[in-house]
Amino acid sequence: MPNTYRTNVEIDWCPGCGDFGILNALTLALQELKIPNEKVALTGGIGCSSKIPHYVNVYAYHTLHGRSLAQAQAIKIANPELEVIAAAGDGDALGIGTQHFVAAGRRNVDLTYLIFDNGVYGLTKGQASPTLPYGESPKSLQVENIKDPVNPIFLALASGYTFVARSYSYNIKHLKDTIIRAIKHKGLALVDIMQPCVTYNNINTKEYYDARLYDLQKEGWDPVAKNEDEYKQKLGQATIKSLEWGDKIPMGVFIEYQKETYDERLSRLLMNYKSKNFVTLPIHENGKPVNDITPLIEELI
Ligand code: SF4
Asked: Cα 299 to chain center, whole Å?
């Protein structure tokens, strides 16, 4: 079956870049879910990863550095009928975009956040990004990294994300299935994707991850919390598990918890929030604009 979610825009990622696996997994996930193209909105920030809105045949928005998640939340709040996906690199999401990353956890807007995590700022020649481990010196750095890394899984758990997962760009099936599960989740879902940068990071490579990643779910990890007590218990366990990084690195779903989403909270405050959302209201009726702003313009003149 042809993949109707791909555009024919020329892709300018480096050959072998992990980003290709994410593009494939995302479009396969949309194809499997059969979501109409016009019902999907995809945002990207700035960076190699954030070119992905150009390559996916949906409503797409290449936004500002660090603002992909902010724009995605605004889109979802304005039009709850859309399936909204935000894409960002690790530098984008966890450097300049950190405040949005944390604040989003408090809202639980129903959307999916994909982080393309490769430890470097690939677009600007491989400087250390916030997730590069302490002491590593990929070939793009002259000296070793002397900062401790941000742990996206740990931070998402602490910030209140209701679905938190890690996946891998060279394991398309695992990534596609994880994206599908994240999209189906009602609430804010993070998928932190290990995505080797073949040009600048010669440490966190395909060989590095192939040797270390293991599947939490295959080891019997049950991430689903059915009530608040279970959530607290599983949150503690998932937080400890999120610290595992070394010879073994866990991937899969760390936690999944269904609780009130932001649009459900808004619906309590704003009557008709969903049924009469402004983006679904007609702008014309019988050839006349519903809201005639002519008097306003005349007054201004
Ligand atoms: Fe991919 Fe790195 Fe090339 Fe960017 S610089 S396209 S992340 S391989």
From this structure: 45
User: What is the distance between the alpha carbons of residues 221 and 174, in angstroms, rounded to a whole number?
Assistant: 15
Query: What is the spatial distance between Cα 192 and Cα 101, in angstroms, rounded to a whole number?
Result: 12
Q: By C-alpha distance, which of 8, 4, 51 is closest to 27?
A: 4
pLDDT exceeds cutoff 90 at 57 = yes
User: How many helices (DSSP H) and strands (DSSP E) are in the chain?
Assistant: 11, 13
> What are the structure tokens assigned to 254, written together?
């760390």
Q: Which residues contact 78 (CB under 8 A, 6 or more apart)?
A: 277, 278, 279
* Largest Cα span, the chain: 71
Our mutation pick for probing the ligand 1 site, out of 10, 12, 13, 123, counting the most ligand atoms within 8 A of Cβ, is 13
Tokens for 263, please give them.
């649009």
Percent of the chain with pLDDT over 90: 88
Q: In DSSP terms, which residues pair with 44 in a beta bridge?
A: 62, 87
Give the closest residue to 155 by CA, choosing from 89, 101, 92: 101
**Does 91 contact ligand 1 (Cβ within 6 A)?**
no
Q: Could you tell me which CATH number the domain at 2-274 has?
A: 3.40.50.970
pTM above 0.85, yes or no: yes
Distance CA 286, CA 214 (A): 61
User: Best of 14, 132, 204, 205 to mutate for ligand 1, by most ligand atoms within 8 A of CB?
Assistant: 14
- Ligand 1 contact, 55 CB (< 6 A): no
Res 294 pLDDT > 90: no
Task: Write down the H helix ranges in the chain.
Answer: 19-33, 52-55, 68-78, 90-91, 98-107, 152-159, 172-184, 206-212, 228-242, 262-269, 294-300
> d(Cα 251, Cα 214) in Å, to the nearest integer?
6
Distances (CA, A) of 38 to 81, 84, 157, 269: 11, 11, 32, 29
Domain boundaries defined on the chain: 2-274
The amino acid present at 180, given as its one-letter code, is I
